[in-house]
């Protein structure tokens, strides 16, 4: 019995999870989050509010900016559903990393910091231009049956291709760095990792204690915090990063992540349709150039930065300092977008175009079929890229990126 318990502990708590399992669970949780809390799983709207709060703190009058009214900017991070959910995600990812002994401070070079900031700013601007990131405009957006998510996804696919071309340039390739064997201290590493599971359990107790000690906290905020924790735990355990999903597909034909995402969206679509039918309003936004251009910029930015919105969140909790700057860049980029939204961006790129819901325009069955065909198209494209990757390996034409 003891060995069985140890085996399950290793598989569930200590080791990384099978990516498809983690992503399908994320799809199920995301659908339930939508149905019980009433909002979609999204993060960059909250990052935009962080930027607005900073400007407010230094005395900037925010009343003229209509974008902040669209994203319902009010209160604080502790009184907003998205706010506590994002905090829960950070907590879940950190505790998952500690359980798996995956936390280790890694300091980037100045060049990598600059790359993280630039890529993060481009991605952050793009996500808010499209009104969502790889979550609300893709993974949790496509199951909402909103046409704008298709535009964003196609833009992201082409954007990641452009981003790869940029990062394969001589400037980004850089030179390999060799570390002397004497600089590696195995004993220090072992001592550092052995204490991590204990810190993880301590963190989990503190997290639960904070929730239980706040009876005045509204139930919807508590629920959002718990869902956020689960999201963060799963993205770390499954190493779920949309950057690698598209980048690796273009580079070497690796399909594991993208195919897992397709399965997660398919499962989620079934759940969200039930809740939409019961009256929970879907998130449907402008199907215009803003979504396509936003996806394009997002795709370029995440490849330059090295991580998407979910990717930088869990990696930053693993101690990878590079991704702290990616997150900072995201906030800066989102802030720039809301500052320029009323200076022609909304008027020309979003306002003239409809908020197109597949369900409202075609009905449930056609919406299911169309969304299913779109997901099938992504799956088949992944198969084609996989075949192309095998061909490159066979013919030894694989592109090489030095880090």
**Residue runs with pLDDT of under 50 for 5 or more positions:** none
Structural class: mainly alpha
Helix content: over 70%
> Helix and strand succession?
HHHHHHHHHHHHHHHHHHH
**Largest beta sheet, briefly?**
none
Number of helices: 19
How does this model look, in words?
By secondary structure, this protein is mostly helical. It has 19 helices and no strands.
For this entry, give a set of tags.
19 helices, mainly alpha, Sulf_transp_TsuA/YedE, cell membrane, 403 residues, transmembrane helix, single chain, YedE-like, membrane
Please give a quick description of this structure.
The chain has 403 residues and is mainly alpha-helical. 71% of the residues lie in helices and 0% in strands. The protein is globular, with a radius of gyration of 21 Å.
List the helices and strands and how they pair.
Elements: H1 2-14, H2 19-37, H3 44-57, H4 66-70, H5 81-99, H6 110-129, H7 135-139, H8 148-167, H9 170-173, H10 186-194, H11 196-212, H12 219-237, H13 242-252, H14 256-277, H15 289-305, H16 309-316, H17 322-349, H18 358-362, H19 364-395
């Amino acid at each position: 019995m003891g060995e069985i318990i140890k085996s399950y502990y290793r598989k569930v708590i200590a080791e990384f999870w099978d990516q498809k399992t983690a992503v399908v669970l994320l799809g199920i949780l995301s659908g339930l989050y939508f149905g019980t809390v009433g909002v979609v799983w999204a993060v960059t709207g909250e990052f935009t509010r962080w930027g607005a709060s900073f400007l407010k703190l230094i005395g900037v009058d925010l009343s003229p900016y209509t974008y902040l009214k669209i994203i319902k900017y009010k209160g604080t991070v502790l009184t907003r559903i998205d706010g506590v959910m994002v905090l829960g995600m950070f907590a879940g990812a950190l505790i998952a990393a500690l359980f798996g002994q995956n936390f280790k401070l890694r300091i980037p070079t100045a060049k990598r910091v600059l790359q993280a900031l630039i890529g993060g700013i481009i991605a952050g601007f793009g996500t808010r231009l499209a009104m969502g990131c790889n979550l609300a405009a893709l993974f949790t957006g496509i199951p909402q049956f909103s046409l704008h998510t298709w535009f964003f996804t196609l833009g992201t696919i082409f954007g990641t291709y452009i981003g790869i071309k940029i990062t394969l340039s001589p400037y980004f390739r850089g030179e390999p760095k060799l570390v002397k064997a004497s600089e590696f201290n195995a004993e220090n590493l072992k001592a550092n990792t052995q204490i991590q599971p204990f810190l993880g359990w301590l963190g989990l107790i503190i997290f639960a204690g904070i929730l239980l000690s706040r009876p005045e906290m509204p139930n919807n905020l508590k629920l959002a915090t718990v869902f956020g924790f689960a999201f963060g735990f799963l993205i770390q355990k499954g190493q779920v990063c949309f950057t690698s999903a598209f980048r690796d597909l273009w580079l070497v034909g690796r399909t594991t992540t993208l195919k897992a995402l397709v399965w997660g969206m398919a499962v989620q679509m079934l759940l969200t349709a039930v809740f939409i039918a019961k009256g929970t309003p879907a998130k449907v936004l402008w199907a215009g150039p803003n979504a396509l251009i936003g996806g394009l910029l997002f795709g370029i930015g995440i490849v330059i930065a090295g991580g998407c919105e979910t990717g930088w969140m869990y990696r930053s909790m693993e101690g990878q300092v590079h991704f702290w700057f990616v997150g900072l860049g995201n906030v800066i980029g989102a802030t720039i977008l809301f500052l320029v939204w009323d200076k022609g961006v909304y008027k020309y790129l979003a306002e003239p175009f409809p908020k197109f819901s597949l369900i409202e325009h075609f009905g449930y069955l056609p919406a299911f079929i169309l969304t299913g065909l779109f997901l099938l198209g992504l799956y088949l494209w992944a198969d084609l890229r996989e075949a192309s990757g095998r061909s490159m390996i066979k013919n030894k034409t694989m592109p090489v990126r030095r880090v």
